[in-house]
Automatic annotation (TrEMBL):
The gene is prmA. The keyword Methyltransferase applies. GO terms for cellular component: cytoplasm; ribosome. S-adenosyl-L-methionine binds at residues 165, 186, 208, 251. This is Ribosomal protein L11 methyltransferase. SUPFAM superfamilies: S-adenosyl-L-methionine-dependent methyltransferases. It catalyses: L-lysyl-[protein] + 3 S-adenosyl-L-methionine = N(6),N(6),N(6)-trimethyl-L-lysyl-[protein] + 3 S-adenosyl-L-homocysteine + 3 H(+). NCBIfam families: prmA. Keywords: Cytoplasm, Methyltransferase, Ribonucleoprotein, Ribosomal protein, S-adenosyl-L-methionine, Transferase.
């Protein structure tokens, strides 16, 4: 089968937002070549025959990122390229800087898109205890405390390498003690839901408005035995969800967090936590004020590069 590859040259900070745009246009998979990720690689099996290679000897981009999405040849994606370009450039209105925001289109053979991202995706230690590992890697924990999240990044973003995902995982690790109930809003790859189960959650429900993300999350749950009982459903934020839980976590764009704040407050038990990430520096104060105006008490702020995560608590006296 022939595939159409749509590639976007952008900045590292806009990676997840651009990937989301491409998935919304029906991508059957995405690959991310991010200079920021490449800088973290250590010598490993990067050669064409599995031989050990020093990443410094590999050809790679020196700055920014290239996000490539793949569409089957029966899908008229070329007609949507103008709209994709407009949406990518429009990310400036969300506090992101997607420049140069260049979009290109190429034909790709079936065997190439499936492995396009493999040489750039390797185990990443994202927190003290959590390590994200691609599904094809033979990897064993280095200590009894290390917990492994296995993911197949070929169908959705949120693989643990982007600051917003790392901040979310760090926030979960900070507040979780075990036996919590969790709602993961905008689950994407499902990485936060899987992490929650590894950290001791007894009940997790993962939600995403995009059916492609739901399918991807379900696939990734299947790679992690601990996640077999996670419920994954298509849903618009917390609309129609009336259960109260211990934790609501959302790694999404700031503009989408705003309408979620009041919903999260209603869906949390007294003393419950709302973990928000995906907050670019320019939007931090807006989200902070929204949380406080809706009754939350901010207990901790996490920061990485230009990205922020906020741990907010519903007062124990609220019901």
């Amino acid at each position: 089968m022939q595939w159409t590859e749509v590639s976007v040259i952008t900045s590292s900070e806009a990676v997840e937002a651009v990937a989301n745009i491409l998935m919304e246009h029906g991508a059957s998979g995405v690959s991310i070549e991010d200079a920021a990720d490449f800088a973290k690689l250590k010598p490993g099996k990067y050669g064409p025959h599995g031989e050990i290679v020093d990443p410094a000897d590999l050809s790679h981009i020196s700055k920014g990122a290239i996000i490539s999405a793949y569409y089957p040849d029966n899908q008229s994606i070329t007609d949507q390229v103008v709209q994709i370009t407009t949406q990518v450039q429009g990310l400036v209105h969300f506090g992101l800087h997607p420049a140069p925001a260049e979009v290109t289109v190429n034909d790709v053979a079936d065997e190439n898109w499936k492995t396009a991202w493999e040489k750039y995706y390797h185990p990443v230690h994202v927190t003290r205890y959590l390590t994200v590992v691609p599904s094809w890697e033979d990897y064993s924990p280095k200590s009894v405390e290390e917990k492994i999240i296995r993911l197949d990044p070929g169908m959705a973003f949120g693989t643990g390498t982007h600051p917003t995902t790392q901040l979310s995982l760090q926030a979960l690790e900070i507040i979780m003690k075990g036996h919590e109930s969790v709602l993961d809003v905008g689950t994407g790859s499902g990485v936060l839901s899987i992490a929650a189960k590894l950290l001791g959650a007894t009940e997790v429900k993962a939600l995403d408005v995009d059916n492609v993300a739901v399918a991807s999350a379900k696939k990734n749950m299947g790679l992690n035995p601990v996640a077999k009982d996670i419920t994954v459903v298509a849903n618009n934020l917390l609309t129609g969800i009336h259960e109260q839980v211990d934790i609501v976590v959302a790694n999404i764009l700031a503009e989408i967090i705003i309408p979620l704040v009041a919903q999260a407050f209603k869906n949390l038990k007294p003393g419950g936590y709302f973990l928000t990430s995906g907050i670019i520096k320019d939007k931090f104060e807006t989200i902070k004020v929204s949380l406080q105006e809706n009754g939350f008490v901010i207990t901790e702020i996490l920061n990485m590069k230009d990205w922020y995560a906020i741990i907010a608590q519903k007062p124990k006296g609220e019901d």
